[in-house]
Write a structure and sequence with these properties.
The protein is mainly alpha-helical. It has helices at residues 3-16, 19-44, and strands spanning 68-69, 72-73.
Length: 74
């Protein structure tokens, strides 16, 4: 990244708000990304033999959501 591009990015960031607000947005984004990554990994396991919501189950580990209640994946 050269000096001109850095200046352009810095000006765009300054228009978005204060440093505190940018930090809060960044942390929120990272939190959401982590949560979606975990959900994505669980969905990827669906092909590996876990049951989707609404399917009958006996144990939490059988469900992609890891939540078996009253014999049904929740």
């Amino acid at each position: 990244m050269d000096g001109q591009e850095f200046d352009r990015v810095a000006r765009q960031a300054a228009r978005l708000g204060t440093r505190r607000l940018l930090l809060l947005r960044g942390l929120t984004g990272m939190t959401l990304a982590a949560a979606l990554g975990v959900a994505g990994a669980r969905q990827a396991d669906a092909g590996a033999g876990c049951f989707v919501r609404g399917k009958p189950c006996r144990h939490d580990s059988q469900c992609c959501t890891l939540n078996c209640r009253f014999g049904t994946c929740r």
